[in-house]
Here is the input.
Amino acid sequence: MHRYLAAENIEYAEIPHTLTMSSARTAQACHVSGDHLAKAIVLRHDGGYMLAVVPASHHLNLPDLKERLGEDLAMANESEINRLFADCAPGAVPAVGRCYGLDLIVDDSIQAQPEVYIEAGDHETLLQLTHAQFARLTANAPHGRFSRHD
Here is the structure.
């Protein structure tokens, strides 16, 4: 993923943190608002996969997303996710769809943040991006409101 970001000229800062196993704990460990941490959720859609990107402080509202994308939408299981993101630690899915050949859809509430943090593919590093860099990273991705604040 780092090579992909370099090739796309996406600038970011690396933020190391103690080992965490959930996006909420990662936000706490890095002293970052969960509203600024982009959580990537892997979905099965139309015979393939895609990512829904929402803030870590939110839950995906699958019925809202189904209304927009169609009923053929479901959460991917752990083995599917591990296969798609073989170079990442289990559960540390970066919000970088094109790097993995996946389409993404971005929740408006994360897209509006002045800076965005994403998983680096492990459970010990976050990448900090400016709003402009995150917008470049997610350029052409559809967006909308499909999450609810916890």
The chain has one domain: 2-149. The first helix runs from residue 2 to 7. The helical segments are 2-7, 23-29, 62-69, 78-84, 108-111, 131-137.
